[in-house]
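Sanity check

After download, print the first record. It should look like this:
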Amino acid sequence: MNPPKSPIRRLAAIAAGALIGLAGVVTFAAPASAHHSEIKVKADCDTATGEWVATWTVNSFAPRGVDNYKFTEVSAKTYVGKTASDAAIDGIAVTEGKEYPHAVSDAITATQRLDAKTTKATLSVRAMWDNGFVDDKLRSKSIEFSGTCAKEQPPVPATPKPTASVAADCDGDVVVKLENGKDATAPAKFTITGAGDFSEKVTVTAGESKSVKVPAKNATAIKVVAKGVDKPLFEGTPAAAENCVEPGEPAGSYKSTCTELIFDIANPADGKTVTITFTPNKGEAQTLTVEPGKSGTVTFPAQEGLTVTPSAEGLDDTTPIAWEKPADCAPGQGGGKDEPALPLTGAATGGIIAGAAVLLAAGVALFMVARRRRVRFTA
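Expected structure tokens:
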């Protein structure tokens, strides 16, 4: 007769059976959980070439004692929008034959250069280890590109584009035109020197121009240099102006009447503005300015001993002009204060008019207003 089994012994048997079952699960499941591949990826824009650069890293995991592996499947694709294309990544490829070229302990790193239009890249691998275990599925990773990847343009050097032109005018002065080209990327700095002590520095911004006038007395030797340019832009004596037309000559006249000393100036339309100051020895001076195409008059009250001196820029003759009493002045006329005044009648009036006309014709004087304003006033 067999004794009944102890409850403790029964529990021990159940526990032992469970342990044996768990051991079996571990034995058969361990290879599946211990063998796998892991993919990582990052990307940057290479501004030197305008390309995306994806860096792929593959790590292998296997149980102790498994040292090497190989890839039995590799699939790489790139996308532009929804359009996919097959791609290749150097260093990550299928290995044919019995070799296992990759060490489990070492990560595989490979770079892939992609066109700037690429919007997505993917990589999938399946590994086989040297113990014969094959990964149970493809391991995959993808990366999407956003933003713009463009080639960085080299900085444009700051460069001026200076030019100069020199032209003389009919007065002998010289105009130097300084320009800085529209494609310039920096201001142009000029120095203009002339005969004597003439010197001027000018800065012209890109796309602009400036002019400098060199007086005739300094224009016999002109030199134009620009900073950064080895040779002068101009050096020497500018050519004389051509087809110059002399300005018209103003006409001046004066006359003595019984009551006034009168000065008339007539300036032709092709003349230059004339300014003359008339200074009497008795009374206040008067200044007359006459523009081209116009005329002007200055009068002084007649009196014994009156003289008027004309003066102007370049006026050669500044001899005082005296009032001279006409011979046919009626008593009381002609600047005298003691003679009784008598009425003018009949032929006397006509004689005065005729005499005035003769004096006017005799008193006409020309004075020149040329480039140097060498004006001569003669009676």
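If your output differs, re-run the checksum step. Summary of this record's structure: The first strand starts at residue 36 and ends at 46.
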